[in-house]
Amino acid sequence: xxxVAFQGEKGAYSEEAALQYFGENIAFKPCYSFQEVFEYxxxxxxEYGIVPVENSYTGSIVDTFDLLLNYNVNIVGExxxxxxxxxxxxxxxxxxxxxxxxxxxxxIAQCDVFLKxxxxxxxxxxxxxxxxxxxxxxxxxxxxxxxxxxxxxxYDMNILAESIESFxxxxxxxxxxxxxxxxxxxxxKTTIVFSIKNIPGxxxxxxxxxxxxxxxLSKIESRPxxxxxxxxxxxxxxxxxxxxxxxxxxxIKLEAETSFLKILGSYPADTLII
Amino acid sequence: xxxVAFQGEKGAYSEEAALQYFGENIAFKPCYSFQEVFEYxxxxxxEYGIVPVENSYTGSIVDTFDLLLNYNVNIVGExxxxxxxxxxxxxxxxxxxxxxxxxxxxxIAQCDVFLKxxxxxxxxxxxxxxxxxxxxxxxxxxxxxxxxxxxxxxYDMNILAESIESFxxxxxxxxxxxxxxxxxxxxxKTTIVFSIKNIPGxxxxxxxxxxxxxxxLSKIESRPxxxxxxxxxxxxxxxxxxxxxxxxxxxIKLEAETSFLKILGSYPADTLII
Lengths: 274, 274
What we know:
2 copies of one chain form a homodimer. Chain A has 9 helices and 15 strands. Chain A has helices at 13-22, 34-42, 62-70, 105-110, 112-118, 128-137, 149-154, 202-212, 245-257; strands at residues 2-7, 26-31, 48-55, 59-60, 74-82, 86-89, 100-103, 121-124, 143-147, 158-162, 171-178, 188-195, 217-224, 232-239, 260-268.
């Protein structure tokens, strides 16, 4: 049994992504926060953790990036999951009965058009599947929750409206983290994080070795350096493996331009074609 | 009287920033959302709007960036405000009485260390000053709110703990938006937004004309293109004015590398030294 930690209650999108990534033979450890996922991995209580990293509609999950900087884990894989949100309620409850929708802030953002249209009170909730569990346990007949079909099935609840996300091309990308190294695939990605002394021409200088080595950038994310106002830390994903001599050489040149560089991992790219 | 729209209730940090930026002679229009601020400006109901753009601890306010892309307004100024959060309650209420803290998600993130320490239930609220107004109106004696000293004064409430932000170097940067053009200062900034066809070497190619013209980048932000999964839109701040011949030339070269470029404005840089 592979042990995998994820944030949320049973039925979470992270759990679904893990099932697709690892197959069925998994012992899950639901966690209250992303930080707890990282702690379970670094304390060797689980072999793997799975955390969302970005959504195609709302952008990066910034907490994940901060944790990747502060915990020593490897990114050993990625999984892209098609996200279909549903409005879920107790059996026998219909839309006019609803006065309040419980939902994770990410789900609220991703379903903004639908929520504006139905015009109900919105209450942020820490977890998608958890919000379904909550309205079931409290037997609320004037409330609904936003979560996956999988969550509706697990808690035996009714779907009032399906695919309520604003854009049908709604995907979330997850990182699989571990203390292990990953097995490489046919097509691989590497994720790095670095900071630069001053922003002037230095970001350009940092990208130069990667561009010259022909390494394709697939993502760039800037986050504030929490100790230095208005200074930024950059996260990059590019195609390639850190042990490849060309990549190694480019990273040595890049490091010379930075005040700090950390390689977060090389791992097989998800081959899902969107 | 200068008319200024901002998001939040009377006593919001945005209002404080506007007071510092414009001086005292202002007619304020509090708005429910950032989008409403943009609508008030484009509908000519107010001359100016003020919106937060980034915090030195938590990073960019992503909604603002999405709105800057979708509304035709100019950025005509910036204001950097030192943010001091306070735990605020009704008079006669002390910390042990409190079981719940109402706060804006940004304030929750910025006070994470303090909130973890006191270990009370946290309830997200749409507005900082609004959360103070709420616990006052409801006469809650088991709840506190997180907001500025200014909000505590306006609503005549008690401060239970002051400067509860995790880092003392907590600053928020605001943009002042308008349909007008700005008056230039001694030191100016320009903000642009662009998208590129494919990420490969193209970000590097976009930064090249700016680096070659010696224009200092002071911020870069990537946001997903909501219509194209995993494609990114980039926001850049750099030092200089769009009408300067050197800047003009660099922007023409940059535009040739992009699939779309929009100049959001040139405006005097805030001279606050942090």
